[in-house]
Specification:
The chain is mainly β. The protein is 0% helix and 53% strand. The strands form 2 sheets. Strands 2, 4, 5, 6, 9, 10 and 11 form a 7-stranded mixed beta sheet that branches. A hairpin with a 4-residue loop joins strand 7 and strand 8. The mean pLDDT is 95.
Length: 118
């Protein structure tokens, strides 16, 4: 298993920016996919952005053009740069690490709150 620790959440006004970070334990960080998910009150957890071990990315339609996911393999860290934030981006954001080859795992961080005020 991989341990994940998120940071960078907070309160921001609409139109502002935040950068989330997720630090992972272990020595094979560059060999698995990372993702950011979010869960708003009363809603299901949804994928926001993901990045493969090769650096390929995909985004939810609702954040395309505003959010950017990146990874720094030597720092064992994945980032989510969030720009032009909207009140509907308010949620708890979770970091995810997934590897399907041996050793396989699907790990989650504790989550970090992002609140966007109008």
């Amino acid at each position: 298993q991989v341990q994940l620790v998120e940071s960078g959440g907070g309160l921001v006004q609409a139109g502002g920016s935040l950068r989330l970070s997720c630090a992972a334990s272990g020595s094979i960080f560059g060999r698995y996919a990372m993702g950011w998910y979010r869960q708003a009150p009363g809603k299901q957890r949804e994928l926001v952005a993901a990045i493969t071990s090769m650096g390929d990315t995909n985004y939810a339609d609702s954040v395309k053009g505003r959010f950017n996911i990146s990874r720094h393999n030597t720092k064992n860290t994945v980032y989510l740069q969030m720009n032009s934030l909207k009140p509907e981006d308010t949620a708890v954001y979770f970091c995810n690490a997934k590897r399907t080859l041996f050793p396989a795992f699907n790990s989650w961080g504790q989550g970090t709150q992002v609140t966007v005020s109008s």
